[in-house]
Amino acid sequence: MKQIIFVCLGNICRSVMAEFIMKDKLLKEKLELLVLSAGTSGFHDGEDMHYKTRAKLMENSVKIGAFESKKLSQKMCDESDLIITMDDSNYKIVLQNYTNVSHKLKKACDFAKDLAYKEVPDPWYSGNFDETYTILNLVCDNLIKHLKSSQKGS
Fold first, then answer.
1. Any catalytic annotation for residue 122?
2. How far apart are CA 79 and CA 9, in angstroms?
3. Which of 54, 109, 122, 140 is catalytic?
4. Three-point CA angle 38, 33, 109, nearest 5°
């Protein structure tokens, strides 16, 4: 596996939070993998992450790099080995609008089955950035475990 991409609606809260949590964990684990994020809407193209997303990452000592929101493209899908959506709506949008993705498309909560969530709640609407961080932190931990076990099996 070379590249994964996290996908939400606007690419300023959930997917970017997952991107930087994952990058930080991979760095600590000394694992190399390109991690990106994008939105299905393009509503916030060119914007920085939501200020509360940045604050939550900083509060948890997650290393943050440069960021600019972007809309998902077919090229991003083609270049990614795994596409992880935050909810059912974005899962369906990716499946309906991009080709050759079904075999690599997953929902974030597939990696957090021990939680009572089917989707990662959008803090843009809920205002609960703590909840989103908690879920995505577990998702990234379990995703790393999955990636490590997949490498051993190859």
1. yes
2. 20
3. 122
4. 55
